[in-house]
Specification:
- Helices cover 49% and strands 10% of the residues.
- With 181 residues, the chain is mostly helical.
- Helix 6 packs across helix 7.
Length: 181
């Protein structure tokens, strides 16, 4: 039998839970900061980055936005990522994909320190996921698992079909489903 999943309701619940956790950290004198980098002005990316900023603001996470021109060189982007890696005030780095054609996405992903790779795209993050170790996980697959669990849908023992094999959704989704048996 079909079941409707209320994604907006679950999203609001998760944001409220995170808001409480962030408030508790702030009470201990710890401020969490996410750096978001967008190169160029891809309309879908702009909307996505805007939503991330709004979510950070609601939750209480400090958000640093780096909106770079399309002409930004790969070297300039790597340099910015390295600066953010070294900053003790930055706890997470997110480079919005896709990047302009003249920038090697793989090189940029590998430049992000694994402990700050909130997208879960760094090879170390992917490796941890593949062997069941803790670490950052791609947002969309992690969100799907949360939607299923919070909707009371039993995953264990089910046969699942994942359409697509992208590094961003398909492969991590398959690995998370395997993790759930």
């Amino acid at each position: 039998m079909a079941q409707i999943i209320d994604g907006k309701k679950i999203s609001a619940e998760i944001k409220d839970e995170l808001k409480a956790k962030v408030a508790a950290l702030k009470a201990e004198g710890k401020e969490i900061t996410l750096a978001v980098i967008q190169v160029g002005n891809d309309p879908a990316s702009t909307v996505y980055v805007g939503n991330k900023k709004k979510s950070c603001e609601y939750i209480g996470i400090r958000s640093l936005a780096y909106e770079l021109p399309e002409e930004t060189t790969e070297e300039e982007l790597v340099s910015l990522v390295e600066q953010l890696n070294m900053s003790r005030d930055v706890h997470g780095i997110l480079v919005q994909l896709p990047l302009p054609k003249h920038i090697n996405e793989d090189k940029i992903i590998k430049a992000i320190a694994p402990e700050k790779d909130v997208d879960g795209f760094h090879p170390q993050s992917v490796g941890a996921l593949s062997i069941g170790q803790p670490g950052f996980v791609s947002c969309t697959p992690a969100g799907i698992i949360q939607l299923l669990k919070r909707s009371g849908i039993e995953i264990d023992g089910k046969e699942c079909v994942v359409v697509g094999r992208s590094n961003i959704v398909g492969k991590p989704m398959a690995l998370l489903l395997l993790r759930e048996n």
